[in-house]
């Protein structure tokens, strides 16, 4: 029987040794854990909306993790998702983030690091759910942080939770430019020590500009300050 007082995690992983180890670790840390070893089964369970967080492997039989992530995002922008990817597969990581994953962890991974990543994503999820304020940019952009959306010149745009977290952090520090390293530390929760992670920030900024700017090539609100980082202008 499920314990409704515990945080629920769904592990979608087909490798028996990894899946069993993850189940043991998260049960030990006090989570209520369910699992799936097939992509189709994982999607069906994920779409029930019963889980606080989903640990999602990329390579799965039946349906891969990218398709599952995309299908989940079509139904829920709020669902927390961490993708498990092959260490050498930069393309996997970039694609997962583009589809709306909240974080990624490369295999082989440290169990302690993974637990910390899960805790960080869950904390950010809880924080976002308590924030209902809006961000006004100029006269034509209103960002609704609670509902993960914005209205720009009468057109509604949807955001992922990570995109809203970036905007909220830049808005809270709008008096100065915010560096990539600071965003990685404060929003993602880890230090910038890989070229990939720097590109991850750039990918998110490009996506945000397409949503909030009339002309993303000449941004008015989300600007780059050369040598310093990014700044959100209102």
- What gross morphology would you assign? elongated
Instruction: Spell out the CATH superfamily of the largest domain.
Output: Response regulator
Helical content class: 40-55%
CATH class of the largest domain: Alpha Beta
Give the helices and strands as they follow along the chain: EHEHEHEHEHEEEEHHHEE
Terminal-residue CA separation? 50 Å
Q: How many distinct domains?
A: 2
Instruction: Work out the radius of gyration.
Output: 18 Å
CATH-assigned fold name of the largest domain = Rossmann fold
Low-confidence stretches: none
The main sheet orders its strands as: 2-1-3-4-5
The class by helix and strand makeup works out as alpha/beta
CATH architecture label of the largest domain: 3-Layer(aba) Sandwich
Count the beta strands: 11
Largest sheet: 5 strands, parallel
Q: How many H/I helices? A: 8
* Whole-number mean pLDDT: 86
> How much of the sequence is in beta strands?
15-25%
Verbal overview:
This protein has 234 residues and is of the alpha/beta class. It has 2 domains: 8-129, Rossmann fold; 134-232, Arc Repressor Mutant, subunit A (Orthogonal Bundle). The protein is 42% helix and 22% strand. The chain has 8 helices and 11 strands. The protein has helices spanning 16-28, 39-46, 65-75, 90-98, 111-129, 161-172, 180-188, 195-212, and strands at residues 8-12, 32-36, 53-57, 80-86, 103-107, 134-137, 141-144, 149-152, 155-158, 222-225, 229-232. Strands 2-1-3-4-5 form a 5-stranded parallel beta sheet, with helices on both faces. Strands 6-7-8-9 form a 4-stranded antiparallel beta sheet, with helices on one face. A two-stranded antiparallel sheet has the order 10-11. Helix 2 (39-46) packs parallel to helix 3 (65-75) and helix 4 (90-98) runs parallel beside helix 8 (195-212). The radius of gyration is 18 Å and the shape is elongated. The mean pLDDT is 86.
């Amino acid at each position: 029987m499920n314990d409704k007082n515990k945080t629920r995690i769904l592990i979608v992983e087909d490798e028996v040794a990894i899946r069993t180890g993850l189940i043991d670790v998260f049960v030990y840390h006090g989570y209520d854990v369910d699992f799936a070893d097939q992509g189709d089964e994982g999607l069906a369970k994920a779409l029930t909306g019963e889980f606080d967080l989903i640990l999602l492997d990329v390579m799965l039989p039946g349906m891969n993790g990218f398709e599952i992530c995309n299908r989940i995002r079509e139904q829920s922008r709020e669902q927390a998702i961490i993708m498990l990817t092959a260490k050498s597969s930069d393309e996997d990581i970039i694609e997962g983030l583009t589809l709306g994953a909240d974080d990624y962890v490369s295999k082989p991974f440290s169990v302690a690091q993974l637990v910390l990543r899960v805790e960080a994503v869950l904390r950010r999820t809880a924080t976002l759910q308590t924030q209902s304020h809006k961000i006004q940019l100029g006269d034509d952009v209103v960002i609704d942080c609670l509902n993960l959306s914005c209205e720009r010149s009468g057109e509604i745009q949807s955001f992922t939770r990570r995109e809203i977290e970036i905007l909220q952090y830049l808005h809270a520090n709008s008096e100065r430019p915010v560096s990539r390293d600071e965003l990685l530390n404060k929003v993602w929760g880890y230090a910038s020590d890989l070229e990939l992670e720097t590109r991850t920030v750039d990918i998110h900024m490009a996506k945000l500009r397409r949503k909030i700017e009339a002309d993303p090539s000449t941004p008015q609100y989300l600007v780059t300050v050369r040598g310093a980082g990014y700044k959100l202008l209102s």
